[in-house]
Amino acid sequence: MKITYHLKIGCLFFIFLLAIGGKSFAEYDYINISDPFQKKIPIAVPVPASLTDNSETERLSQQVVDVLSNSLKFTGYFNVIDKRAFLDAPGKQGITVSEINFKNWRDIGSELLITGGVRLEGRVLQLEFRLFDPFRQTLLFGKRYTGEVSDMREMVLKFCDEMIHRLTGNFGVFNTQIAFVSEGRDGKALYVSDFDGENRRKLTENEDIVLTPAWSPDGRHLAYTSYKNGKPEIFVRSMETGRTELLASYEGLNITPAWMPGDSRLAATLSFEGDEEIYLLTKSGKVDKRLTNSWGVDVSPSFSPDGKKMAFVSGRAGSPQIFIMDLKTMRTNRLTFEGRYNTQPEWSPRGDKIAYSSMSGNTSDIFVINMDGSGRVQLTADAGRNESPSWSPDGNMIVFSSTRKGNSNIYGMTSSGTDQRPLFEMPGNQSLPDWSPRIER
Amino acid sequence: MKKFMSFGLLLVVMMSMMFFASCARKAPDGGEYPGEEPMAPRIGERADSETELEKQRRIAEEEIEAYRERQAAEAEQIRKEKEAAAFVDANVYFAFDNSSLSAEARETLLKQAKWLQENSDRSLIVEGHCDNRGTEEYNLALGSRRAQSVKDFLVNAGVEPSRIITISYGEERPAVRGDNEEAWSRNRRAEFRLR
Description:
heterodimer, A: mainly beta, Rossmann fold, 2 domains, about 10% helix, B: alpha+beta, 5 helices, about 55% helix
């Protein structure tokens, strides 16, 4: 994470090119995030104009449009219109409301338009973007960002982040990261990437076995299980300093850590009492409370966003199934009844659904189900083993691992199961992705 | 090693025989034994040589006895090592998503318990493993259950609990690679490691 980010892109300011008329019209009309089957909004993203006359600016303009288009496509909200359909010649489309021929954009069906400008002076890069509604012929908002050339991607993502916030009323995924495990010939290691799989960094040295990274609710820490001392123990790594501390090293298992929202405590499965049970641990790793109490396996806790309930996997019914515990009354109800092997529950950030993986034969698939056990929907099919679902913090997307191409890779899809694609290509096997909360930077 | 020992025995026997009749001066390969002197007993020294013979015979017998003891100790050592190896090699296998012990598993574990009682100075690690189906988190817990089942059985059979540590590797360390029932059934196992 870049600490210097604030300094570099600090001088960003609103450009009020158009008085929006005092009244703030309802921008949220554009994207209704609670409708998973909403059609994609056609959006035109022409190459930004080069505001300084040199080839480096033109090269950067091309990179800017690529990052912008790919990032918008990634959300699943937009259909980025092929630039060959554009009626205006490249660079001649005009970037302000008075220069734009909105009819030319309406005619190709674009419901939104982003124009941009790139200015390069020395190593100082200035990007400006304007979002228009070609039908209302209005500027929805515009912003200018200043930074170094190396900050280009972050500057574009900053604009995307604000744009999604304005269109949906919620923050999107652009300020988030994905932690995962990668296994190569030399062992396993923890990695982290940006929301779209770009910018991958290796966090730990290669180890024998390292598993289940879990972001803290503030995105500042990552808890995980490692066998680096010869047995499964839980470690917590500070994402700011890289410092790693041993959290839990009880006799037997110390696995599947999950942070409690709005709390410094974590739930994890321990077996020091001779049975695999879920315990609540303080941030220093002391047992605060035993949560489950049944013979057999209890594993993989996942808290509701309000921290009042916990989903988990139990073998108490004779096969692994998902249960929900009310943490106040300690009452436990079985959630899944279909299928013989339902594990890896992940509570959605909106609190209404749980994603999980269900195995049958030699394949696994991702499902979502409502809190009351209704509305069970299968999101993947006929595509190898699909496991470890993890929601984006806006609840719009799910990241998971899939063996559909042989090796296990990290895939993304919308929460309705559309737009399934690998996030990146990397040698070896990648698994156990965990999507971070929004990280303020 | 064994061959060398039997040759040694032969040598001792032959050397003692040479005191009775000095006829075997040649080694089987035709060469002379190193350091051997031809010894024809002389009449006047007969009594002395009989005492000497008796002494030599006693020494030879003691040497044979010591050799046999060494050989027995070595055989015992080999037997123990073999038993320890058999102990470590004896896996216990499980059904899918199951940690209960089959009749075959119990039979194996009775032998393991017997060995542990005979070797009360040895401590062990029981490793629990799973096949690669199912999910890693649940398999870690299932591997733990399998190792715990084995530990419980051994403790019931009289082995002190403090001698047994369990560790689960889930599906992380398969015995064999492969996505078929043959591979899966060999991977759903508990292994023993001495520590």
